[in-house]
Structures are given as structure tokens and as C-alpha cells.
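Ticket #4471: structure output looks truncated?

Reporter: J.K.
Steps to reproduce: submitted the chain below (310 residues) through the standard prediction queue, then opened the result file.
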Amino acid sequence: MININGLKIKVPIIQGGMAIKCSMAKLASSVANEGGIGIIAGSALSLEELKKEIRKAKSMITNKEGALGVNIMFAISSFAETVKVCIEEKVDIITCGAGFSRDIFSMIKDTGIKLFPIVSSLKLAKIAEKLGADAIVVEGGNAGGHLGTDLDSWDIVEEISKNISLPVFGAGGVMTPEDGEKMLSLGAVGIQMGSRFLVSDECEVSQAFKELCINTKKQDIIKIMSSVGLPANAIKSNFSLKLLDNIFDSPKNCTNCLKHCSRKFCVREKLLAGHSGDLENGLFFAGKDIWKINKILSVHEIFENFKNIF
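Returned output as attached by the reporter:
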């Protein structure tokens, strides 16, 4: 059990907020019911969709020793409005990455919501601490999805955890209990895992995507440049290889969902295609070490495997 400014968490495991429509109510509530921190990915959901998912997750959570949070990418156009929904719906935690927001600290002040910024440098960790963050998620370049550094988590977690007073959760590269133990040895109080929960029964992506993950080899993870303007780790696929060759699919129906977008392709459209199992046209974000995962497990089984490391 850890206590973060009055929020008690039985198992210090954060389930990563994987957009788009990957980390949803079913997965987040299952993690919270195991005593961890379940996260709904709020980016690219409409405000009404997010409200619905938060309420659905809350109705499914029976364990008061876990927590429910929402992940919001700073890069989205509706960032402020999405934060307001989280305040209205009284989530426990907000995690935010893909950029750094100073405004969110004043927005959630006195709401009771805990803020866990996702950072990749000691500089940003210290700024977040000074502004009033409750904990820090330190994410390395070996994580899945959009990245803030070329350095792996193993290279940055120890420096940050030793130089700030806030609790640190290490993210990136944690696929096995041994990886979790390594992260804790670097000074983290807990871990954040995305890819391990992606390949779970409760994650609502297609079976085809999950099977692609468990059949992925070490050499099958490549780094692409997202239309968000950030690099990202993805599984080698027909579409991701096109990106490496500078062959793009221009968006057909742009909704201006991002503050800044290259418009070379629609990352939302391609991620949704990937999550639906479209192996030809989809984009499949995953952590660099997802090749270590060779079995689809339930959330309960994942927690059973990891609980003894704490």
C-alpha cells in the first residue's frame, strides 16, 4: 500500500493510457479492482464519450483500494475541455504527456484530483514538482507510442528519482516481473505498463492485434515519426514501413483534433484501424520490448505475476 497525498493505492501499478479506444472502461476498471491505477485514454474521445467511459468504469469498480484516472495528451486541441470533464466526473488521477502543460496545475487545484505528469527529463520533473505535481511518471524511449526522449527508461529513472522528492513511477520496458524489479531498484515506487495490459483479455482491441503482439520479434519494432510531431515505437507493418519510405496517406476527413499536425497522415485514423485488426492499413504502437510477451493474460493474472515484486 502506498499513500500519495492521501490517495491510498494497494498495488503501485499504473496501467498506461493507450489511445485511441484502447485503454477504456473495461480495462481500467479491471486494473482498479486489482488494487492498481486504471487509466482511460481520454485523447481523441469526444467529451460525451469520455463521460460515458468514466461513468461506466466507476460502475464496474468494486475495490476501494484501487483508483481510476484519465490520460490526456497535451497535444490534443480539446486538452482544456477534456480536463474539465475529468474534474466534473471526479476522477482520482490525471496523467498527461505528449507535451507539458503548466495550466493544468491551476485548473485542478483544490479539486482533489491527483496529477501525475509524464516526463522524460530531470528538468521537466523538477518543474512539475515545483508546480505541485503529486507524483511523476518517468517514461523512456523504450515505451510504446509517442516518445519524449531517445534514452531508455533504464537510463533516466534513477537520476530523476534521486533528485526529486515526489514518488516516481517508471514507464517503458516493463514486460516481466524481472523488469519491474529492475525499475524498483532504480528508485521508482511503482511501475506503469502499457504493452503488458494491451495484451490482456480485458483490453478491447482486436484479437488480431493481440496475436500480432505475441508473435512480434525483437527486430520487428521500429521507430516512426507520428503526425503529432513526435517519434513513436510501432510494430513493423505494411503502413509503418511506408512511413519509413516517406509514403503517406493524407487524411480524408481532418477534424483538427491536434494542436499541431503534419497532416501527412491521420494518426487517429491509423491507430483505430490497427486496434480493429486491419493489418494492411493499421498502425500498431507497442513498447520496444513487447517481444518478451508471448501470452495473452487476464488482468488478474498479470497482477498475480507482479504483486510479489513490491
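Triage note (M.O.): checked the attachment and the full C-alpha cell line is present. The CA atoms of residues 208 and 277 lie 5 Å apart.
Status: closed, working as intended.
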